[in-house]
Every structure is written in structure tokens, then in C-alpha cells.
Amino acid sequence: MTSAELRIPSTDGVDLALHDLGGVGPPVLLCHATGFHARAYQPFVRHLASAYHVWGFDFRGHGSSTPPADEHFTWAGMADDVRAAVDAVNAQEGTRGQPLLAIGHSMGGAAILIAELARPNTFEQAYLYEPIVFLADWERTVEENNAMSGPARKRREVFPSRAEAMWRYASRRPLGDLQSDCLAAYVEHGFTDLPDGTVRLACRAEHEARTFEAAGLLTSGGCAGVKIPVVVAVGGADGMSNTVQMAGPAAATLPYGRLKEYAHLGHFGPLQDPFTIAVDVRDTFGAGRAS
């Protein structure tokens, strides 16, 4: 599956890549997790394509999108990117005036909620896999910030080739948990070619770390203002991780929230078992089973 790319402006001097991922039916906006990009989800989108027209964009500093001019990452800025993508999708021939559905993963799920709070009825309904919604009484400490940002800063950025990166990622967790075609799509579109023939991560290690450090804007209490139906999905394979602990309170606080659990999946669920997640997305949005 190939995708057409549009360039659209967002705030802070950001130039976003919006990808038409294909399909027929009501429009859906896909919002990816930190460190990833929209086209990593192409194997997942294939199972939606007979019922939905899926659009995805790369958040600022991810994939083919540029970072903020000052390289200051905020999750309010991520929500700005969501709204910019929404406006661009709504302006396309064939989608204008149609209700927009949302699928979000991790940071992407949180950004959808923040965008919906800022501009109600941006979306008709949403399916969010482990959105980053902090408990109201959690205190963000330096240690908690560094739990993700520290390792992100140490990520190896440059490889001799995409094939070498693919081999390394497939041989170890966490990326080794991804379904092979999802990992291949992540690698194919997640690197830039350098003049010396090597490849470098499109989402630079420092940008990924700053994105993690900016988390915490949204708490479960803030979800009460989201008035659309939302499924909060959560995996069980990672034990009681922070993202697992966040899911229940977020779903309970959302006025039209519902919790969906997957015992066999971890935090990368849509990229681990895209078919199963697509089945439930279609059931959630009312289009029947995936193909």
C-alpha cells in the first residue's frame, strides 16, 4: 500500500506530512505514538480500508514532519498538529462535511483528547490505545520523566542500512514485539538517507526524549470535558505499567468512555496484532468486521 503525501502548516513553524493511507468510506484520522510515524501503521490500515478512508500524519519532529523552529516540544503543540491535520482532511474533496473519526495510540491518543477539549466535536468518536492520561494525583518527578526520556536520548540513530536496522530491532525488545510487516514499515519510512550511504532515524533521539519529557499535560480529571464516545483500549501483557494504570481511570472519567482490554498485547498493541485491533475499531465505529 502506498500513500500520497500532503504538506500542511502547523504552529511553531512546523511543516507536517499528512498521508492519505487509502480506503473507502467515512474519514478516519490516525495519530501515532511517540517515536513512530503514520506509515508504520499501514498493515493495520489494510484491515480498515474496505470500510474507512484513513488519513495519518507525522507529528512534529517525527517521520517526514519538521520539528518546531525552537525545538521546544509540548503536547499542546501535538494537539495543534492534530487540529491542523483535521482541518486539512476536512478540506479534501470527498470528506468535506463528513463526521471525522479518530484512532490514537499512546501520545497520539492523548493529543486527540487535548484537541477535542480545545475544540469540542472535532471528532465524532474515538478509539484510543493506551493514551497517556496521567492520574490526577500523580506527581511528575525527574526520575519519572527520565524513565522514558533517558533511554530515548541514548538511542542509536545511525545504521549502515535499513536492513541492518531491521535486523537489530527484530532481535530484541521492545521493537521485536512488533508484527514483522509493521516493523518493516516503521524502518522503511522511519529513516532518512545520509550522503555517505548510511541511514539515520527521522525522529532524532533528542526530539523523542523532549517529547517524552513534555508528557503530563492531560490528567484523568481533565477527560470529563470530552463529550464524545471514546473507547480506551489497554494491553495486559506488560503487567501494571504506568500506561496500564492510566487506562481505567481515564475511561471511567470520560462521560461516554468504555474500557477494552487485551490480555495478550502490550503497549504496542496496534503494531503487534493489527488485525485484532482493526476488528474492534470497526465494531466500535459501526462498520462490522475487518477484512
UniProtKB/TrEMBL annotation:
Family matches, as InterPro entries: AB_hydrolase, AB_hydrolase_1, AB_hydrolase_fold
Residues annotated as domain AB hydrolase-1: 28-274
Protein name: Unannotated protein
Originating species: freshwater metagenome
